[in-house]
Amino acid sequence: xxxxxxxxxxxxxxxxxxxxxxxxxxxxxxxxxxxxxxxxxxxxxxxxxxxxxxxxxxxxxxxxxxxxxxxxxxxxxxxxxxxxxxxxxxxxxxxxxxxxxxxxxxxxxxxxxxxxxxxxxxxxxxxxxxxxxxxxxxxxxxxxxxxxxxxxxxxxxxxxxxxxxxxxxxxxxxxxxxxxxxxxxxxxxxxxxxxxxxxxxxxxxxxxx
Length: 209
Ligand SMILES: N[C@@H](CCC(=O)N[C@@H](CS)C(=O)NCC(=O)O)C(=O)O
Description:
Layout: E1 2-6, H1 11-22, E2 28-31, E3 50-53, E4 56-59, H2 61-71, H3 82-116, H4 123-146, H5 156-168, H6 172-179, H7 182-191, H8 195-198
Parallel strand pairs: 1-2
Antiparallel strand pairs: 1-3, 3-4
Helix pairs in contact: 1-2, 1-5, 3-4, 3-5, 4-7
The structure holds glutathione.
């Protein structure tokens, strides 16, 4: 039995759900808001997501997608060639270390999510997030242009990156920055059409303004 502990608006949870959808796996869902200090959260660092498969608990989204890749049948999301494998790890590492905070926490959160929940956008934070996203977008554009990964053959790099870019590009000035990077844009316009992406898209809170 598979159970995913996650928060419906969490970008990392979205990655795990997209991977589960790509593998065609059914799972039980436990909603936990990691920003609620009262919430009962099995994750030792108070984050989401966490996957439980027959009692084996896995956290860290890259570990979850690796597990789903290898434990269940389907096309491999890990290429064979050394450079491709390295690029997959590189994209995931860049997203985690340099992309998530500016693209999601500083841009999507204040520019898209906060206004949808009736809170005023913090423009200074958004501007800082847009600025800090630039080197990440440039490095990703270079990787997309090289074509070794982000090239249409699904890898764990695609799964890790698509929800991040999806949230980021929900803010029109961020979408413009993406549009200025043709190879990354072309990659995103393809991956955003996959059923696994569309079917797991979180949307915004229903009590939006
Ligand atoms: N390194 C973790 C990061 C997960 C993460 O940061 N998730 C966010 C939600 S998208 C979270 O739980 N944030 C709660 C917090 O920052 O306190 C992973 O790869 O799963």
